Every structure is written in C-alpha cells, then in structure tokens.
Amino acid sequence: MNVFDFDNTIYDGETLVDFILYYVKTDYKIWKFVPKLVYIAIKDKFHLFTVEKAINEYASFLEGYYVKNTVKKEDVKRFWDENQHKIKPWYEKVRRDDDIIVSGTTDFILEEIMERMGIKNYVGSSIDSKTGKFKRLCFLENKVKIFKELYPDAHIDNFYTDSMNDRAMMDISDHVFFVTGDKIEQIK
User: Fold this and answer.
1) 36-80 confidence digits (pLDDT tens)
2) Of all helices (H) and strands (E), which one includes residue 173?
3) How far apart are CA 159 and CA 184, in angstroms?
4) Three-state DSSP class for 27?
5) CB neighbours (10 Å) of residue 29?
6) How high is the pLDDT of residue 72?
7) Smallest Cα–Cα separation from 9: which of 186, 188, 184, 187?
8) How far apart are CA 82 and CA 87, in angstroms?
9) For 145-169, how does the pLDDT look when each residue is reduced to its tens digit (9 = 90+)?
10) Which helix (DSSP H) or strand (DSSP E) does residue 51 occupy?
11) CA 181 – CA 178 distance, rounded (Å)
12) Which of 11, 90, 166, 173 makes an SS bond possible with 161, Cβ 3.0 to 4.6 Å?
C-alpha cells in the first residue's frame, strides 16, 4: 500500500498556514494570534519542535481562537473551494484505492478534502472542540504510533513525504519517495 504525508507532499503548501491565512482575510479576531502563529511557523520550519513542545505552542491559539470562534463546516468548504487547486497533479497518477494519508493537519480540515478526493483512509491531528486541547497530534514519531493504532495490519510499500520530520514513518516503509514541489525522488 501507499502512504502519503499531505502538506507539501500532495498539497502544495502547509494546510494549517493557508487555513489561518483564510481566516486572516475573513475574521479580524484572529489578528491578535498572528505574532504567535508566525513564531510557531518559524519553529516548525526549522524543526525546533518535539511533540510535547508543539502541543504546548499550539495550545494558546487553539484554546483562544478555535474554541471561542467555532470553525464552521461552511468555512472549511469555502477554504477548500479556494485551495483545492493546490493538490499536486502527480498524485492522481499514483493514487490507489487503499492509499492512506497520514498528516499533522487537523482532521476537521482534512475531512472535506479527503471526501472530495475520494480518499477513505486518512488520519490527522485531532482537537477537542470544547477545550481546544489535542486529542492526538499526528506529528514526528507520533505519526507511527497513531498509524499503527489505527491500521495495525497495514504494510507500507511506498511512503511519500517532503520532510525528514517523517523519519519514523520512513523507517517502517519498504520504499520512500521524497517530494520537492513536483519532483519525486526515491531515497530508500
């Protein structure tokens, strides 16, 4: 089976960043969180997070914005109406019905695009909508833990990613493909 990271692998960009930018254009209340989100994005870009630090860093945004300003399904649909074109065309050429997407993106954002793409098997980070706390963070070594919990009998033939952050997923895959833009290079 093929397993894929989503952000910067299948999707051309960081979904959460694009989603926040969508809200920056539509909801002034998010502006007070922008400095903190920029700080988090820089730390993420330079791989300065552990799972625990990522959970703590995102907590103030999630508790302060996500919980108080309930994200509506209509917003997620409009977001994907604007951003679905960022799905990289190469994916459709390798897509199989048993593909699994394993992403740090939150499941409430992934759900809509997975349905549109006809992907039945996916897992993302999950947030409690009442508290804003992570129920699970699908990031770094947690991706393997969550993947094995949800798909205990799955064997990964091919894993596609854009980041060495996915080293743990690479280690349990027969073949690994590194994606840079639309260029795909087998590295294992």
Assistant:
1) 777 777 776 676 766 567 666 766 666 666 666 667 889 999 999
2) strand 173-180
3) 11
4) coil
5) 11
6) 80
7) 184
8) 11
9) 999 999 999 999 999 999 998 999 9
10) helix 51-61
11) 10
12) 166
